[in-house]
Amino acid sequence: MNSLSTxxxxxxxxxxxxxxxxxxxxxxxxxxxxxxxxxxxxPAWMAHAVISLAEDQDIDLRNQLGxxxxxxxxxTALGARGEWYxxxxxxxxIVALPFYLGAGINGLxxxxxxCPAATPTPPFLLCTRYAPPSPALGATILIGCGTxxxxxxxxxxxxxWGALLTIAAFTALAHExxxxxxVLFGLAVLSRYVxxxxxxxxxxxxxxxRDKRALGRFLIAGAPFAVVLLLSNWxxxxxxxxxxxxxxxxxxxxxxxxxNQLQATFVKPWGVGIAxxxxxxxxxxxxxxxxxxxxxxxxxxxxxxPTIVAAFLVAIGQLLLFSRFEGYPGTPxxxxxxxxxxxxxxxxxxxxxxxxxxxWNTPAKKRNDx
Length: 370
Hints:
18 helices, 370 residues, mainly alpha, globular, single chain, four-stranded antiparallel β-sheet
């Protein structure tokens, strides 16, 4: 464990990292900016949900879509009373609502800058527990600027929001704060159901301590979010066990057809899916994490560190969940792998720390020996 970054200094360092990435991503967004372009594709429907909350005090998108079935295509779910709910989880819309109420669509642009800028901070704080600040910062900059995080920093992306919460939960558990970890992970899963794939890694991290009370604190802290999920499913779709993905609306033959998205899209053969996630230049780790050779070396360097094993289990969980999924985004980098990409900062930091020791400390030691 690193002793150079004390608990008192970590919040200040984390704040500095947030400011650094706010400026970096702000400059990147300025270069890419066109009106409303940060809400294209999936984020557009989440922006509609924000507007619906502001204007109608609900998340029924029929008004925002002009009751036009063609406009609802592939991004809405049929509610129990005929509502057109957003297909994706609406927590991001609720969190971003104050920004919209304060500044309209430009408020969402501000939120879009704050969320990506905050995302590299938990990986940095995680790294400072096991490496000095300088290699931790170097690894965070590599992950924040050399991966899909840079592309998605210009997007009103709920995948980024979910990844931020999940990586923060992992970091809280690494710092032995199970209650905070439970709250963050509960909110993460409520915000993006697929974040549940990280559960094996997080539970492994808790079980390392052999502390039943820590496990209990984690589960109790996350339980209220599970209750909210079940109640919202019951209200919106008529059953606690039915989600928006069970009530997906597709526009076919001039009308909306009800489809179970889980059955329709998780159909790829396991072997094909795993190979694509590992090797495909667009949808795989290869395209999402271009510096994967450094990460692999870092995994070897830190193989005996249990937290590295926990991070690896998170990546395995995401790999297994999405190996059967059809319909990856066409943009460079797979947004469903964001948590694994963020946690890759830890093995990268350990590798940079080892290289720093070999390149700088060894020659000095030899001179002293002489």
